[in-house]
Amino acid sequence: MPDPILATPFPRRAGAALKDAFLQEALTIATTKFIDLRKEAFGALPEGDALRDRARAIKEATLQRLDYYLDQLADNVERLGGHVHWASTAAEAREIVLRLCRDRGVRTAVKSKSMATEEIHLNEALEHAGVTPIETDLGEYIIQLAHERPSHIIAPAIHKTKGQVAELFSRELKGQFAADPEVLTAVARRELRQKFLAADMGITGANFAVADTGTLVLVTNEGNGRMVTSLPRLHVAVMGMEKVIPSMTDLMVFLAILARSATGQKLSSYTTLVRGPRRPGELEGPEELHLILMDGGRVRQIAGTLREALYCLRCGACLNVCPVYRQIGGHAYGYTYPGPIGILLTAMLEGDRSVKDLAHASSLCGACKDVCPVRIDIPRMLIELREHLDRGRIAPWPERLVFRAARRLMQSPWLFRASARVGRVLQRPFLRGDRLRRLPLFFGKWTATRDLPPVAARTFSERWKELR
Amino acid sequence: MATRAEFLDRLRREMRRTQGLFPATPAARPRAPREAAEAVRRQLAERWPAALTRFQAEFERLAGVFHRVSALADVPGVLARIAAEKGVREVIGWDRAALGWDLAAALSPHGLSVFAAPPGGDDTDRESHLAVAARAPLGVTGADWALAETGTLILRSGPGRPRTTSLLPDTHVAVFGPGALLETLEQVGVMLEAHHADGRVMDAGGVINFITGPSRTADIELTLTRGVHGPKEVHVVFVDDCPSPP
After folding, report:
1. Residues A193, B208: C-beta atoms closer than 8 Å
2. According to CATH, what is the number of the domain B32-241?
3. How confident is the model at residue B45 (pLDDT cuts 50, 70, 90)?
4. Fewest CB atoms less than 10 Å from the CB: which of A23, A29, A97, B138?
5. Is A97:A114 a contact under the CB 8 Å cutoff?
6. Shortest alpha-carbon distance between residue B225 and chain A (Å)
7. CATH top-level class of A45-294
């Protein structure tokens, strides 16, 4: 199911975002605030660096025995009375949910925020099947009413003003609501409370799944994750297979850094540990619990270039610090996961071809790697991805030609020196002061957004001969 | 649809192609979880006053409202004051066995009507419970653990301890004593390892909730707003002389 936004090429999408003055302001305010909150939270945590190292080691250790932990998780979930489903593709994951809806006569499903269900475009599939999906995270609810896509992993509606939300609520919910976050939040509370109580199915993702105990872990701030796992008679959790962790001891390490990285909180308001469906004697909780473990492109990266991206906790910290994300926001990326990690996840889930342009939407400054709670080396993988695109002849031919020529030049000292002499002549008509500001042909794309330093009047290697 | 065997086989084929990125092990777990938990309890039996100070500071930073009384006999008065402040008369709460004291008996002299969760409910119980829980303005629970470094309440669900008592009402009040206090997330990890080491899987409830302040969102223009789906206010009544519930 391709997103209509992809009909427009990435450079045009990015260009449009850059011209959107409101978006620019909203992005600056939001990302700056998130950066400050994170910095403050880790500033007050002297053991933060050690915890990040441990978290990283746990992720790698889990991947090294992933078959064992998944097997153990499935055994334990089943022992507790839950059902486990295995989905190789997004389509299979959707079909499992739809079949459950059909078999159990589900009419409405309430959802807590889940990137995994966004990834498989579950809402569209449910609607087609006559099931009404209701997003209950306030940001996601706004996005759903507006028929839009989230623009940030943890703050899906940062591109909207309170005025726009008030207008949207007034129109869609038939009322007159003031442009006041307090008022609008109360409206959503009232609306969604009824939906929670009436829904047949609750759909969630999972931030973690503890193999040793069969526990699904949901981290939320609003309490909607608790509602959807407490009130409907069915609970379906959709989860990338890499979210499994070995033990409760490991979970504590991740909890200590996840919220701090995402929102600067010590812990999010609610961390919910779900162990199977309702127990005998319990008044609430689902009669049935279904866990869908998803591949969708993850398995082939176990030994692939993007293995390290499987560590990702989906905290959003790398989005906030990325100079590209901060300028263009989430929509311009065009896929479920935006930002630096989003480029890698898109390549993983949708294939290399989908990131032909996106792979270059990074300055490789390394800010993402610095803030990542599990220290994912995003720049390294972006470079390797670019190499793949070149080798796989996916990159456009002028780009491949330029890089091939550059490689040849740099491999031969003679050619390299000769090219400096030639370049010095060729650049003359384009020199403005001490900069190349506009180049002809496809080189013009480079100089459209930046200047190029010219070949020096005397290069270093020429001077070196005299200095010796 | 893939079967478990197919899925894991494919995964194993890929796993055989790599050694991984670097040598790594998961976090070291307590070898004897129950003994480790007992050791933590012994330490806290000495150190709880400092943990309480930290808990109060963190909890209040989250906009939590902290009360402290010396004995259980003083708790109904505090609850009645909170109810009066909110102008409400209906209270839902955990049952006697879960709390360690009788909420209904404690509050009826104050003119409040109490709906305690029936332990071991059938379908009729479920329906009547939900009808009440969905509109009750005030929910009273205990707390199995209280984590000082983050101001977090940790509640296990189970018979007589519904998971929504701390979720559906506008105001949630948790009553607990020194025995619940823990200092660090690491200690919580030890407690959870011990809890799961028990083996009596089906006796324990389906859910454990960590509650860190009221329900909150910042989804509209990053303006912090409380009470989006869960409680707008969370209160703690700390009881110095509180017999730990079973």
Report:
1. no
2. 3.40.50.10420
3. very high
4. A29
5. no
6. 6
7. alpha beta
